[in-house]
Specification:
Layout (H helix, E strand, L loop, with lengths): L1 H5 L1 H11 L13 H15 L12 H21 L4 H24 L5 H24 L5 H15 L2 H5 L10 H19 L5 H38 L8
Helix pairs in contact: 3-10, 4-5, 4-6, 5-9, 6-7, 6-9, 7-10, 9-10
Length: 243
Amino acid sequence: MADILRDDDACNGLWQAGRRRVVEIGVMSVAERKAADEAAAIVAQSEQPSSPTERVWTLPNALSVLRLLGVPVFLYLLLGPHADGWALLLLIASGITDYLDGKLARLLNQTSKLGALLDPAADRLYVLSTLIAFVLRDVVPWWVAALIIGRDLVLLATVPLLRSRGLDVLPVHYLGKAATFCLLYAFPLLLGSLGDSTFATICAPIAYSFAIWGTGMYLWAGVLYLVQTRLVLRNLPRVGAAQ
């Protein structure tokens, strides 16, 4: 893996696949000068005076809020009446709205700072609530949940550091989105794997494959976020220090 990351051609291929405008997954594997440029680009993007970034009442934001409101309902369905079928439908609906809010934000030019916070917050809350429910119902071992939740807690601790450099959060990069995608696919399949039916037998290996890959990528994405944070702190002055 280290040899691959040091190979410029491999990195360039990863960049082309994972770039979401400015910040990209390859920040960890480039030379120090290029890495500094990436960190500077993050701040430059965050400081662009663009009126849509201040919007609150937008259709994509409304979809994100609906997803957030579904989290306690989802938990109740799993832990209360064990209505796994309804919980599965709600999780699928959440995945559809997750796709739509990003698509509509770009299509309607309604990207906003609030939306950039709501979208990953909804993703993480669904991941967290599902993990809690699955641990309580003995679907996944507790240490898997501890790894995923611990990763988010570590990243949460970097927020004050980023704000000292003029950032609220780092933009979500491709690997983080791919990891969340795998986990959100794994969860409904894990629900489907409960029981002794033929459908459950078919779902089980697919569900655990998504869960293993998703957990691995989720942790690796966390490492990349930490590297990006380190580069921001190293190469950019504190807010107000440049005056």
